[in-house]
Amino acid sequence: MSGYDSSLMVGSLLDSGSISPRVSASDKRQVLSVVAEIAARSWGLKAPKVFDALFDREATGPTGVGHGVAIPHAQIEGLDRLRGIFLRLNPPLDYGAVDDEPVDLVFALLTPVGAGSEQLRALSRIARALRVGEMRTQLRQASGADAIRALFSRETRSSAA
Asked: Which residue of the set 21, 32, 73, 122 is catalytic?
């Protein structure tokens, strides 16, 4: 993957079809299944392959980073560029987060195979955006997909200055 833009905005990883502001899931497995279904619908990927990649990554260590946030991620065969999927879970659920708090904000990052350094930079940007308490509050209160995408676009522009 060449041509990575170091000024990548988190909002540019999302499109309106990859944001689900009202997801009910009973466990982490179901959350990853929802992510896989959205990836299949949005980008023509095979849902079972996406699920397996995310589930295998989860087995290496938790992606629940604290404060109600999880950032599952995986490299996906056949993906043309970095892509994001954002879910807002209601009710929050036990995700095995590092702080043992239930998770309600999930930002899944899917990257092409071999996108190692690009994946790390994107994960860092996502984590930085979601580390801000005010951002998390606004995401929890946002009225829908467009408002959520606007928050990510605005936040990354202001933090890049």
From this structure: 73
Residues of the chain with pLDDT under 70: 1-8, 155-161
Exposure letters 10-31 (e unless 16+ CB within 10 A, then b): bbbbbeeebbbbebebeebeeb
Q: pLDDT digits over 46-70, tens only?
A: 999 999 999 999 999 889 999 999 9
> 73 an active-site residue?
yes
140: domain CATH number is: 3.40.930.10
Residue 78 resides in a domain: yes
| Average per-residue pLDDT for the chain | 89
In angstroms, what is the C-alpha Rg of the chain?
14
Alpha-carbon distances, residue 155 vs 113, 134, 151 (angstroms)? 28, 10, 6
